[in-house]
Amino acid sequence: MNENLQKAILLGNEAIVQGALQAGVQFVATYPGTPASEIGNEFAKIAKNNNQLYFEFSTNEKLAIEAVIGASFSGLRCLCAMKNFGVNVASDSLLPFLYTGSKGPTVLVVADDPSCHSSAQSEENSRGFAQLAHIPVLEPSDSQECSDFIKLGFEISEKFSLPVMVRLTTRVAHQRAVVDLGKLTPGSDLGAAKFVSNKHQFVTMPPRVLEMHQELLDKIEKIKEYAEKSQVNQLSGANNKIGIIASGVGYLHVKEAMENLQLDLPILKLGFFYPLAEEKIKNFIKPLKKVLIVEELDPYLEREIKCLAKEVNPRLEIFGKNILPEVGELKPEQIVIALAGITGKKAPVAPTNFKTIKHSPRFCTTPMCPYWRVFAAIKKAAPEGTIFGGDIGCYMIAGFSPMQVYDYMFCMGSSIGIGHGIAKAVAGKQKVITLMGDGTFFHSGMPALLNAVYNQSNILAIIVDNRITAMTGHQLNPGMGENIESGTVPEVKIEQIVASLGVKTENLKVIDPVDDFDGFVTTIQEFYPKNEISVIVARRMCALLEKRKK
Amino acid sequence: MNKTKNFNIVILGVGGQGLMTLLRVLSEAAFNAGLDVKTSELHGLSQRGGSVSVYIRFGDKVWSPLVPQGQADLIIALEQQEALNGLYFANKETVFLVNQYETPTMAQTANQVEIEIELRKVTEKVNFLAASEICQKELANEVVSGTYLLGYALNNGYLPLKKENIIEAIKKTMSEKYQELNIKALDLK
Ligand SMILES: Cc1ncc(C[n+]2csc(CCOP(=O)(O)OP(=O)(O)O)c2C)c(N)n1
Predict the structure, then answer these.
(1) What is the spatial distance between Cα A225 and Cα A219, in angstroms, rounded to a whole number?
(2) CA dist., res. A531 & res. A527, Å (int)
(3) Domain tally for chain A?
(4) B17 touches A at CB < 8 Å
(5) Residue A387 resides in a domain
(6) N or C: lower Cβ tally within 10 Å for chain B?
(7) A257 shares its domain with A388
(8) A492 and A376: one domain?
(9) Cα(A295)–Cα(A370) distance, rounded to whole angstroms?
């Protein structure tokens, strides 16, 4: 029999879905974001007409985790997925969830993007949330581990009644590799779920909240004992005075580098990032002279290990961010050079000063993206000196050369919030125009607009409504009149929300920037001098979506 | 440690040229051939017309999903200027297959002569091919120029996989509509 029959090539994110299904996941909520988006996309395909699995694209990450908290309290097996920035949004609800703990086992998948291949705003390392929220964190290195660690996450969550985070990076989430398919456990219909009131556990009010804090710390102590014995903190390699501690994709680079240098050094691969298996680490470093710590971005492990070394091996030479970069993803050749340096081997010298070329991202041309017309109109209508606020979505591409439209750009929803602050500060002397997409408006733009209305600034907010969340790969949003579970649902109209938030009718217009280009130009000119907040909804379907619908 | 060396491919281009499809075909083909495989791909922002480089490695056992510096066996550039970004991965044995197709960059631009001079500083095995033009002329579809380059690599012994494996992979990974077109592109001369 062909042994390949039980194996397949899967993207890390596909393996996450595979593992979750094997763990009997019943309730999935997500908000799209690269490099986590395929997790939701895959579940969306599976969940249609499936009465054993509920799936939603929530309207932001806080709402995704809240949906999952509710389902977990009702006893379901839950998964929530998002990119790193999503955890910032979700954190307000995530932290108390660790206090209450989960009822139905719950796994949170978070994907970081070292080197910002598909991210603006920051090179965020969500491992920082481990300490902040006291959430157990597992770090897989390849697709097989994506599947295995999700299952382990469910197991740990079930055993200790705490949500567990599985942290990916781009090179794990978007790595395609061979995976053992394993068996699907037959699930049960969702109809069986029941919320049983448990005020003692689900209500985080003082003074009970302090008891909950203690309970959380006690659970973490227990999970630490579990981590000490766990196979995912894995020892390999021959005996030597020089050792390596690695996590995530860094481990694979280490194996690569050792092969390259024909080395066989002891490696401790840490699958558990939090809580840390301190005893195991101490035993590993005790007999060593030198240790190299390989982790991407901030030296979280390195700091912990330095403390542990003081206890058990104060003379240990610790190498980490002193020879490896803290900014940008790690590459195998960097590990080769680091290891060669430490072991006294000769590293191959490679030339580096090549001519390189950079194509900046740009709006689609075949078919023609409507944003071309949006920015042509703005250029025509807005006077010199206008301040442009950018937001997160395909329209941010106007921030790249040669357009370089934006004067500031932060995170989802912030164009209006920051624009409001500027407008208040300059008190009418300069004008702010902000650009935000439909997806971003639903995600976090609404409260920002409310604040600008309430506190009376005069920004001109253009909401570019291309009828979909495009950048992350075309996920559904409330403006589309569709969701995964129900199919057709009532369409949410942005102009109605804008009006109900208090923007006056005479300061609000919906225009098609392609069919009525001139009307769009004149409306910008007409709204520009206003002393009150004004909003233009530039509604024109994403050209790719339009093509697909034909 | 007597495993044979992995085969390393770097594919470069601009987002939207079908790089991920090519990776899927290659990974399934190598898998069909019973090899260990890893790819590293990019999705999202970088897919929107920007420079993209993706990797596939296959052999007895593949560790890192990234091709280490200077270790590419084959570099395929779907846009000719992007070939320059491949030099980081090249050595004197590396084969370059470069599509004579250009999308303008804003700042620096390099023409074919300049690109070729740069590539030849590292390796002699540089092939410029009018893949887009040929595919457009013969199949009225330049999107399959990547598959055409795979065919070229197979026919010239630059890719240690069998044509059957590639065809099988095309059938597995593409919708019926595109299968025939891609299989034709493999055999175009
Ligand atoms: C908190 C957070 N969640 C998710 C993302 C990922 N993300 C980047 S662009 C984008 C889509 C925005 O959609 P929309 O505003 O409709 O713009 P479009 O791409 O359709 O133009 C998302 C979700 C992010 N950057 N930050």
Answers:
(1) 10
(2) 9
(3) 3
(4) no
(5) yes
(6) N
(7) no
(8) yes
(9) 42
Please check whether residue A2 lies inside any domain of the structure: no
Whether residues A306 and A170 fall in one domain: no
Domains of chain B are: 7-187 (3.40.920.10)
Pocket of ligand 1 (CB under 6 A): A 31-33, 61, 83, 85-86, 89, 392-395, 412, 437-440, 466, 468-472
Q: Decide if B46 touches A, using CB distance below 8 A.
A: yes
| Mutation choice for ligand 1 from A112, A469, A476, A541, CB with most ligand atoms inside 8 A | A469
| A214-223 per-position pLDDT tens digit | 999 999 999 9
Whether residues A118 and B46 touch (CB distance < 8 A) is answered with yes
Q: How many CB pairs under 8 A join A and B?
A: 156
Give the dihedral sign, CA B140/B145/B151/B155. positive
Sign of torsion, CA A193 A197 A201 A202?
positive
Residues A84, A202 share a domain: yes
Query: What CATH number should be reported for the domain holding residue A120?
Result: 3.40.50.970
Q: Verify that A239 and A206 share a domain, yes or no.
A: no
Would residue A362 count as lying in a domain? no
A409 Cα: distance to centroid of ligand 1 (angstroms): 13
Residue numbers in B near A35 (CB within 8 A): 43-44
Q: Which residue among A343, A358, A380 closes a domain?
A: A343
> Which ipTM score applies to this complex?
0.95
For the entire predicted model, the pTM comes to: 0.97
Q: Residue A100 carries which side chain, given as an amino acid letter?
A: T
Given an 8 Å threshold on Cβ–Cβ distance, is A358 in contact with B107? yes
Torsion from C-alpha of B96, B97, B103, B106, nearest 10 degrees: 0
B45 and A34 in contact by Cβ < 8 A? yes
Does residue A154 form part of some domain? Answer: yes
CB–CB of B41 and A249 under 8 A? no
Secondary structure of residue A27 in the 3-state scheme: strand
pLDDT surpasses 90 at A350: no
Over residues B6-45, the pLDDT tens digits come to 999 999 999 889 899 999 999 999 999 999 999 999 887 6
- Residues spanned by the domain of A175: 7-229
Chain A hits for B48, CB-CB cut-off 8 Å, are: 361-364, 394, 397, 471
